[in-house]
Amino acid sequence: MRAISYAAASEPVRPEELTGLDFHRDLADRYLAIEGLEARWIPIHREGLRPDKETALRLHHLLSLTRAVEESLDSAFRAGHIPGTAFFGRGNEASSVGSAACLRDEEWLVPMHRNCGAHLAKGHPPYSIMAHFFGRADGPSQGRDGNFHVGYRPKRITQLISHIGTMVPIAAGVAWSAKVRRNGQAVLTHIGDGGTSTGDFHEAMNFAAVQKLPLVVVIDNNQYAYKTPPSDQYACPTLALRAPGYGMPGFLIDGTDVLVVREVVSQALDRARRGGGPALIESVSMRLSGHSVYDRYADYADMEKLKLWERERDPVKRYDQFLVEYEVLTPEEIAASHARARAEAEAARDQALKCPFPDPGKVADGVFAE
User: Fold this and answer.
1) Where residue 9 falls among pLDDT bands split at 50, 70, 90?
2) Has residue 370 got a pLDDT over 80?
3) Looking at the predicted structure, is the pLDDT value of residue 262 above 50?
4) Average of per-residue pLDDT across 211-216
5) Which of these, 253, 257, 265, lies nearest to 320 by C-alpha position?
6) Domain map of the chain by residue range?
7) Whose CA is closest to 254, among 284, 280, 282?
8) Which helix (H) or strand (E) segment is 139 a member of?
9) Over 50: is that where the pLDDT of 223 sits?
10) What distance in Å separates the CA atoms of residue 108 and residue 215, rounded to the nearest whole number?
11) pLDDT at residue 91 tops 70
């Protein structure tokens, strides 16, 4: 499988190059493609990724809206409007938006708790997300759950299970259904780097490969599984190297570049729709906040490394810079897009806070089948 049209310019990978990979440095202008026992570096030609203006504006709005929705939810949590805790995906916006934007309306998304951007890209309204977080009657679970333990069936988004590895078998089941129905659809799912160590994940990947299911699995490797760094999670240089063991192509990409994510995921989905089987994509970013709002991130994270990624690989700022540098949008158009996203997020928050709480007498409604 060739991920993009200029793969002919790729270079074979020497084994020693994968020892001590520095994701920040080594993925700056290329990504890794693995097919069978062959691994190649694919150069990234930015001009070839340049979107048309309509697409550029849509992606920019989604990236900015993702950041704005999560910031609005964060402030609402600190104001006491969200029960329990909250998990956000700051730094992961490009992976979420760039991947889910490749799905067709009729295809299923199986996201996890740091994929707010995927929800928005697939069409989940910000008001619905806010109402769910606030435990209000208009939320998808009607107050029965919170945080990103949420799906949205009108847009074919499955709900999250806290045991993250369990989501991949669910995605495989949905993809199996698509294969049996021969409807030409593919399924996209996300999992964290920590979740790939679970037995459920391995069983699902093996099953998907054996059955040649139309499934694309994106590993959002934000370099921490709660407080555990990659060196204490797995021994391979990159999780993408697990792909040939399962019998599928693998990719290692910079997950902070929305256009690279979009290109690689789009090609993998097209291959899956044509019957080529599943693909594994490791999308590397940096978690720019704690595991949850209660997490004292500075107690264990390499803060110098975090500051480097925040300064040079913030997904929103990075896309802003690309659009100006390649003259796709003007600074004024970019500023207007940010302002529109903030206004949309704040309006959704204010509307959701006015929504009533559910009637406690109806708590069992819809739980049991008659």
Assistant:
1) low
2) no
3) yes
4) 98
5) 257
6) 32-295+304-355
7) 284
8) none
9) yes
10) 10
11) yes
Query: Strands of 250-254's sheet, edge to edge?
Result: 11-12, 38-43, 30-35, 250-254, 279-284, 215-221, 187-192, 108-110
Mean pLDDT of 208-216: 98
**What's at 186, amino acid-wise?**
A
Residues 6+ apart with CB under 8 A from 55: none
Residues with Cβ < 8 Å from 255, sequence gap 6 or more?
92, 94, 95, 220, 221, 261, 283, 284, 285, 315
The structural architecture, per CATH, of the domain 32-295+304-355 is 3-Layer(aba) Sandwich (3.40)
- Distance between CA atoms of residues 343 and 269, nearest Å: 33
How far apart are alpha carbons 263 and 259 in whole angstroms? 6
Alpha-carbon Rg for the chain in angstroms: 20
Helix (H) or strand (E) holding 119: helix 116-122
Averaged pLDDT of the chain: 94
Measure CA 9 to chain center. 28
CA angle, 130 then 136 then 137, to 5°: 120
**Predicted pLDDT at 3:** 40
- What pLDDT does 296 receive? 86
- DSSP code string of 270-326: HHHHTT---EEEEEE----S-SSTT--GGGTS-HHHHHHHHHH--HHHHHHHHHHHT
For residue 358, which amino acid is it? P
pTM of the predicted model as reported, rounded to 2 decimal places: 0.94
Share of the chain above pLDDT 90, in %: 82
